[in-house]
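The following block was generated as part of the benchmark described in Methods. Ligand: adenosine-5'-tetraphosphate.
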Amino acid sequence: MTEVVHTPRVFSGIQPSGGLTLGNYLGALKRFAEMQDTGGMQTIYCMVDLHAITVWQDPDKLAHATRELCAGFLASGVEPEKSILFNQSQVAEHAQLAWIFNCVARMGWMKRMTQFKDKTGKNAENASLGLFAYPALMAADILIYHATHVPVGEDQKQHVELTRDIAIKFNNDYGVDFFPVTEPVIEGAATRVMSLRDGSKKMSKSDPSDMSRINLTDDADAISKKIRKAKTDPDPLPDSIEGLEGRPEARNLVNIYAALADLTPEQVIAEHAGQQFGTFKPSLADLAVAKLEPISTEMSRLMQDPAEIDMILRRGAMRAREIAAPILERTYEIVGMVR
Ligand code: AQP
């Protein structure tokens, strides 16, 4: 039995499959920057371009989206001096370990993944094999660094649980204690930001309606307009959090306010109890503009120098490979590949 002490390490990724949304910011990016500063753990953050092509991406747009995503990381406070920041395809070990995990994960496990079902609906026969295998690649992204903590939004919880199952099965199958059993870190007031048009749907970069989401590249006018037009009910805000029960749109706006202001939803309710949305929405719009406009301005500035972004990604990839290569080598040895 190979005993390994797993040093705490953070990994997470975002797909360059379109523009970043407020959901990505509150559920992921903001948390990434906070963990980099407070956790005392090594932080590794990735633009998962191999995941993005599980659905068709125009090559020029993919390259642009990858650089813009990197600009989004930087503008949100992730610093390349503190965190390892790179795009997935520059570290081949992710895909290599994913193949091993394709052979560990069971069809029954994969068929239970709700994201695949949500994304394909009745069109599953037409989906790419990559989209079905996506969670095994995600497990490889995490475990190629022996990452112990994965900050994600609520929607990714099932995939992190699958990562745990894969690690446990690999360790059992080969009689080793090699891969750590990773913890999802789902924290904050907005772990599931909902669409501004439909409180039962997650805010998503691929939603056909631009009014359903706030993009990190939106200007102040667009942010204010989208919040003012967000779907709500006719009642005022309640005086306790329980009063938001059965009011998903109201709850969503309260959660967004709380996450942007670094408050709890209870504190937001205490401050705004009894307010009509005609009053609450402008306060939320002002807050959102104050927090998001500097990010979008900084993203535009960074995008003027794509060569600098490419350099950051290349350097990050080199640092990432220093960790990933020995873990892949050891995995191959455990599996019985002749080296
Ligand atoms: N609405 C959300 N609320 C909270 N967190 C969210 N995340 C995404 N949407 C929300 C978190 O952002 C990280 C990166 O997600 P991703 O881009 O890799 O994939 P996704 O979850 O599939 O995001 P989208 O916006 O829904 O993309 P599309 O439309 O392409 O499928 C993850 O940590 C995720 O939890």
